[in-house]
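Entry 14. Structure prediction run on the chain below.
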Amino acid sequence: MDTIRPSVGFAAVKLLEDAGCTVEVPAQTCCGQPAFNNGDRATAKALAMQMIEAFERYDAIVVPSGSCGGQIIKHYPELFADDPNLAPRANRLAAKTHELVSFLTDILGVQAVAAHYPGRVTYHDSCSGLRELGIQSQPRKLLQSVEGLELVEMPHSDVCCGFGGTFAVKYGDISNQIVTEKVTNVASVEPDTLLAGDMGCLLNMAGKLSRQGSSIKVRHVAEVLANMGDEPAIGEAEGGKP
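Output returned:
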């Protein structure tokens, strides 16, 4: 997030502070998901240990990413299941890790946000957020409270965008076909903006839309909820130009 879309991190901090949290961002690295998904358990464990050591002293760990959240919550316990010393630490970290919007709604009880975003938007359900963490109604609930925003559902919003981490690299032709179908569904409801909660999905869909010459803006849902919708859309440079 800090190298590709720092505004999402700032949006996450704002939403958490507005909800009454004291937020700290310790030095950290990748959660290890790419290594884990490719069978490199040694690297995945090494990265996971760095994350555990950096975050285990906090009351809650909140991530603006379904895929990172899924890795920590679902797969850290799996990684260390056979280690009697590390398994308890991995399990404790998993138990207090949450995806951002789920944390706001399900844990803190946030019902609405003070944000304004004029336009017609549609929401893509990322695979990790939806299937691993059960995130579907939560972002829609908060989006409905955004002043000026019209939320429209695209067909098959819960179908994969084709990114899948290294899947898009290994199986480029298949990935391209999947994302082509996805952006066709996006465009069918004529939105001004496409939102999602996972940077991989957003980058993949923004790239395809840009290559097609589409004017649909692509943003992380946290940016809109935090009233940071004036940031350049994903795939745009400063000034709003591709």
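The radius of gyration is 18 Å.
Filed with the rest of this week's runs.
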